[in-house]
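Morning!

As promised:
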Amino acid sequence: TYVVTESCIQCKYTDCVDVCPVDAFREGANFLVIDPDECIDCTLCVAECPVEAIFAEDDVPAGQEHFTPLNAELAKLWKPIIERKDALPEADEWAKVESKFDKLQR
Ligand code: SF4
Ligand code: F3S
């Protein structure tokens, strides 16, 4: 499966959503996750994300491994998002911030 990681937090550009053939994305207030039960490993979403937040499960950067179980957990709680929408208002500023896990709204 593919996994959304820290870069997405407070940005939520949503370009990824439009290309997913199985509508695997789930939306929270300031983050998206991929439902591992839906993702078919097509890889299409990876190149779409302007902040490179999406990785194959086996390639999640060191220190961000916890995002794999987090995607699975939140996918059960959050609703599908199937169309692109505007990014969060301060997305371009937050895109430059590396550590923002404490901002994640569940
Ligand atoms: Fe959807 Fe493909 Fe990305 Fe999986 S890898 S979330 S199937 S676009
Ligand atoms: Fe997030 Fe990147 Fe998608 S910022 S919403 S994973 S395009």
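Helices lie at 15-19, 44-48, 67-75, 91-94.

Hope this helps with the figure draft.
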